[in-house]
Amino acid sequence: MNPLADLIREQIQHNGPLAFRRFMEMALYQPEHGYYTRRRDPFGRAGDFYTAEQLQPVFGILIAAIFRRLRQERGAGTFVVVELGAGRGELEPYLAEFGYAAVDVNRGALAESIHGAILANEFFDALPVDLCVYRDECWRMRDVDVDGERFRFRDGAPARKALTEYLERYGPQQPAEGTLAEVNLAAIEWIGKIGARLHGTLLIIDYGYTRRELLRFTEGTLMSYRKHQASADVLADPGERDITAHVNFTALEQHALSCGFRRLRFESMTATLLAAGEADQFAEALAGDQTERSRRTLQLKNLLFGLGESFRTLLLAKD
Questions:
Q1: Long-range Cβ contacts of 292-297 (<8 Å, 24+ apart)
Q2: Any idea what the CATH number is for the domain that residue 297 is in?
Q3: pLDDT tens, 249-258?
């Protein structure tokens, strides 16, 4: 029995096929039954996936070192760190010295003026996206319909202007018939919101691609995760599994530049963490007795050679 699936099915039966963005929004954030709003912990061994934040204390120590350097470069004055999509708040002990504030689904709100930095670690990949398909030389919506007890995709109306403009600027160049592409207008909106409030730096850590790399993703990038198993079936069991889409870093950066940001760095997370630990040769990150050092060394290896190679960091400044 899946009460959220029943709700979605009822909506489709009354109003017709549902835009995928709405399906994803309900699957993740519906107040009672959404994946991130239910009273459960999706992280770690007993959950559905790991993030870099579970590799503590090493990740927290290195992230704190990054913000310490940024604060020093900024000079005198207020320097706070706000984390978007903070989850369990595992970074809070390491960022407490910066007047840490968390903004997430059920807590906090973005202040009107922020002097310091914003951290968006695996934040943008969880925002609901529209899904489009290239048919007969135009982009069309991919909607969600009901097929018996299951949900299925179907081609819908031509994509509205905001979606086609996004795809023209940031989407696949010369798409072939049947090419799928996600449109993350929510990410663009968040960049604008951040740009209107932030005086300082924005650090984005996520997995994703640049526009040039879209040739690798002709079937889109949507994936679902449950019990550490990845699946391309993003319509199954809404509310019971995570749904993500790779981040379009070209879209984030280009819109950020139009909002007054400038790019400082765009690189692998490995390169970012290596630079963070360079000052003390990872002495703080690897401190402790022999058992603790062994545990932390394993965490560092996972960060540098596991997650670090698939995740990227984009550092932007606005002041």
A1: 296/57, 296/58
A2: 3.40.50.12710
A3: 999 999 999 9
